[in-house]
Design a protein that fits this description.
Layout (H helix, E strand, L loop, with lengths): L2 H18 L4 H4 L5 H9 L7 H16 L1 H14 L11
Helix pairs in contact: 1-4, 1-5, 3-4, 4-5
Protein name: CdiI immunity protein domain-containing protein
């Protein structure tokens, strides 16, 4: 899988989470955890440093809660993380 395909798959994961998120989801679904959603995405950062992971965690959280406001910065961070994404291919 190419770097572009891995980045696209990573962004697709974040986009799905953003699509499903809405304010008050925690009240409607007590089992929901934004932290778990973020970690599900961060798990795909193979060789990222702890500092890189922490930065991406914050960007993912912002992208889930406010996709329009955070998407450019998340995309830029992914470009900077060239080669550390490990996303399994879609079946």
């Amino acid at each position: 899988m190419s770097d572009r395909e891995r980045a696209d798959a990573f962004l697709e994961h974040v986009a799905v989470l953003a699509f499903l998120y809405y304010p008050g989801i925690e009240a409607d679904d007590p089992t929901y955890s934004l932290t778990e959603d973020i970690e599900w995405c961060v798990a795909r950062l193979d060789d990222a440093t702890d500092a890189q992971r922490e930065r991406v965690r914050a960007l993912i959280a912002r992208a889930i809660v406010d996709p329009t406001g955070a998407r450019e910065e998340l995309f830029t961070a992914l470009v900077e993380l060239h080669g550390v994404l490990a996303v399994e291919p879609h079946e």
